[in-house]
Amino acid sequence: MKKILFLLAILSVGITQANNGKKDRTPEQIASIQSKKMTLVLDLDSKQQSQVEKLLLVEAKDRKSNKMKREDREKLTEEQRFTKSEAALEKKIAMKREMKSILNADQYAKWEKMMAKRSKGKKRGGKHRKGQDEKRGNRN
């Protein structure tokens, strides 16, 4: 019994530290990891990887500086929500244009599919929801 409690304690500490590690990443770390993942998936050359990393770094810094608490978001007026939504869409358009200038046609098509899949996952509730669909056999 003591061994089981000890193992549970170790697991819970490990899980807590792993979750905290994700939240404490700097924009530089986020951009580096994302660019490396994209390099693996899209087969980017070194020049493309550095350009993508710079672009992702700007995006990560912007995201971190604009992060709001849930309570603050709920206090926004309709006009403020509209302005934030419009600004977010402008940033997405700019990102898409930049990626199109960096990637070749095949890479760009693959990147768009990745983004569409990612967006679809967020709309359905993210990874948790996706896992539930797979358990039920509802694969897309």
Summarize the structure.
By secondary structure, the protein is mainly α. The protein is built from seven helices and no strands.
Please give a handful of descriptors for the protein shown.
140 residues, mainly alpha, LTXXQ motif family protein
Query: Which structural class is indicated by helix and strand composition?
Result: mainly alpha
Summed over residues and divided by their number, the pLDDT gives a mean of 79
What is the number of beta strands? 0
Shape: extended
Secondary structure layout:
Blueprint lengths: L1 H22 L3 H16 L3 H20 L4 H5 L3 H25 L2 H19 L2 H11 L4
Organism: Nonlabens xylanidelens
Keywords: Signal
Protein name: LTXXQ motif family protein
Task: Walk me through the structure.
The chain has 140 residues and is mainly alpha-helical. It has a domain at 88-121. It is built from 7 helices and no strands. It has helices at 2-23, 27-42, 46-65, 70-74, 78-102, 105-123, 126-136. Helix 3 runs antiparallel to helix 5. The protein is extended.
